[in-house]
Amino acid sequence: MSEISKRYEQGMKTRRSVLGNAHVDRAEANKTPFDAPFQELITEAAWGHVWSRDTITKRERSIITIALLAALGNHEEVAMHVRATANTGASRDDIMEALLHVAIYAGVPRANHAIKIVKQTFDEMDKEREQ
Predict the structure, then answer these.
(1) DSSP 3-state assignment of 38?
(2) For a tag on the chain, would you pick the N or C end, based on fewer CB atoms within 10 A?
(3) How many Å is the maximal CA-CA distance in the chain?
(4) Which CATH number applies to 57-131?
(5) Using CA atoms, how far apart are residues 33 and 38, in angstroms rounded to an integer?
(6) CB atoms inside a 10 Å sphere around CB 26
(7) How far apart are CA 9 and CA 49, in angstroms?
(8) 114, 82 contact by CB (below 8 A)
(9) By the 8 A CB rule, do 49 and 40 touch?
């Protein structure tokens, strides 16, 4: 990575607060010279710029992000951001409301598949909590 910027440092702090240390530590451990520029980009841009803004809450960003990912069919990312709701405060009801919007504005098949992923992710989270 090139010189560490303040935006990168803020992004890493925000990324850890939303996704959790374990997730970010795994991503960092799996980083290679090939994808290091991409990891730097998302840490600075997504996490350091967008997610670190204080205009709306992390809960609201979480809801928006899940809706956008579901609408675009980015299923792996949907599951990751559903897990992040444990840190952002977005509720299960919030997520369902977002997915209802996805059904109307992006299509029922996209929402239906996202609901399947969200249910599976919630089941996994519930089982982990029980342990």
Answers:
(1) helix
(2) C
(3) 45
(4) 1.20.1290.10
(5) 10
(6) 12
(7) 11
(8) no
(9) no
Query: Tokens 């399947």 label which residue?
Result: 116
Q: Cα–Cα–Cα angle for 54, 56, 58, nearest 5°?
A: 85
Contact partners, residue 72, CB within 8 Å, separation at least 6? 106, 110
What are the domain boundaries of the chain? Answer: 1-55, 57-131
CA atoms within 13 A on the CB side of 11: 17
For every one of its 131 residues, what pLDDT tens digit does the chain have, with 9 covering 90 and above? 456 799 999 999 999 999 999 999 999 999 999 999 999 999 999 999 999 999 999 999 999 999 999 999 999 999 999 999 999 999 999 999 999 999 999 999 999 999 999 999 999 999 999 99
Q: Is 51 helix (H, G, I), strand (E, B) or coil?
A: coil
